[in-house]
Amino acid sequence: MDDKPQTITGPFGRLIRQENGLIYFYKADGITIDKPMAIKFIEIVSELDDSGSARVLVIQGDRVEYTFDAQQILLTNKVLGRIAYVATTTVQQLTTELLQDLAKTFKARFPVGIFGHIEEAEEWLLHRPKSERNDRFSP
């Protein structure tokens, strides 16, 4: 993959692959992530990083919901290698904790981390050993 930043924008938000190799996903507010949107997300991530171990930093929007089918697709794919959620509100924290718990239930092949700050999420995505499964950090 090219090291130059790449951006893809849609109704779901903005995905930006930065020079550090991380994909930053700025979610739009007030969306419901359903099965077709989850599939599209996985396709876009694969376009931005076709390694099979993409590292994605998700900046949660407000009023974001996930259908069960979407959660299953997002947590059982073969594109992601690590995903970090930045949750700054109580509702965002609860939503991401649910996703993290479901990752354990679905036996996701990649770790899911929750952070209160982008810098903490970046550090974890860039420097943590792959053997860690699901990390939970408080904002």
Label this structure with key terms.
4 helices, seven-stranded mixed beta sheet, alpha/beta, globular, 28% strand, two-stranded parallel ribbon, 139 residues, Transcription Regulator spoIIAA
- Percent helix, as a range, is 25-40%
Q: How many β strands by DSSP?
A: 9
Main CATH class: Alpha Beta
Structural category is alpha/beta
CATH architecture: 2-Layer Sandwich
Average pLDDT: 88
CATH topology: Transcription Regulator spoIIAA
Overall description:
With 139 residues, the chain is an alpha/beta fold. It has one domain (6-136): Transcription Regulator spoIIAA, CATH 3.30.750. The protein is 35% helix and 28% strand. The protein contains 4 helices and 9 strands, in the order ββββαββαβαβαβ. The strands form 2 sheets. It has a 7-stranded mixed sheet with strand order 1-2-3-5-7-8-9, sandwiched between helices. The chain has a two-stranded parallel ribbon with strand order 4-6. Helix 1 runs parallel beside helix 2. The longest helix has 16 residues, at 90-105. It is globular.
